[in-house]
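Please check this.
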Amino acid sequence: MSGLGLHELEVRGSLSFPWAEPPQPGHTLEVAPGVLWLRMPLPFGLDHINLYLLRHEHGWVVVDTGLNTPQSREVWETVFSEVFAGAPVLAVIVTHCHYDHSGLLGWLVDRFQCPAYMSFGEYQALFLTPPKGDKPDWAFSQFFRRCGLQEEQVEAFRPMLSQMSYDIDAPTSFRRLRENDRLRIGGRCWQVVIGSGHSPEHVCLYSEDDQLLIAGDQILPRITSSVCITATEPEANPLGDWLASLRRFRTLSDEVLVLPAHERPFHGLHHRLGQLQQHHDAHLEALVSALESKAQTVAELCPILFPRIRGSFDLLMAMGETLAHINFLRDEGVLTRTLDGEAWRFSLSSSGGRTFVAAEDIHV
């Protein structure tokens, strides 16, 4: 599961895509000297992830791994023989912890006895898994009852979570990446830029000299990355982290070629960042408007943001994203909550914070 959001924004007319078509699944395309784009297939509606292969000295550095599945391993075997021509993998860099990005991390580093590079938060998150067993544990059940779901709806999540879960082959050690660290790979300097909100400490790689940005799931050209609350940390404010990340990425050059984890590489970084900000601002404004008349639960507010929920997976993601926007507004002092039975009800604050004000003016 990549954890991508339910919304799709039609923005192709305002972004520039240097390649009309991606490489075929399992094949590569050179996007810059020594930088190969590998299209790895996924067994989802979102049917691919983009991995990036960086030529370095007598071997290769790999950015992200694909799912831990036989299909992914078959693709890698072809890459080892036909693309790498027997040259070794010297290091694996993982942008973040989600299954499609890190599933084969341990397999790759054990095979080549090479280091894994990632942020501390993402390495820790590799070991957080959904609760096991036939019945949800009390914290999982309570989390969704607090959102206003019925017990039968909560129980429906359990088999769905089991079906969509993929094991991550996690390494026993890693080398930590921090904000502004610099990696010298193949004569090119990559600066580490950390984003947050979609995952704890998402690593992006920025080459200022060559105007390249390996963006992972942090910046995608068409779909929006999910920003969710889960039962693991119900009081978190990942949307606050996400919006702060968007502002930080605006300090990068607008001339970069963005190399995303899904869809095609594109130009137009600042325009896309502005669209993502406006997308979440619209969600926040919609929630404030909906709460002007009465207090409501997360379950009651969810269809306002996500009117086309088509099953348990959509509901799971939509509830998490709706609560992320609610928690942001609570932290801003716009909303308060009261416990009504087993569910929280949210209302506009009586302190005067009845109108959400966008975080900043975006000039695109």
Q: What stands out?
A: The longest strand covers residues 48-56. The two ends are 32 Å apart (CA to CA). Residues 82 and 255 are 33 Å apart (CA to CA). Confidence is low (pLDDT under 50) at residues 1-13, 360-364.
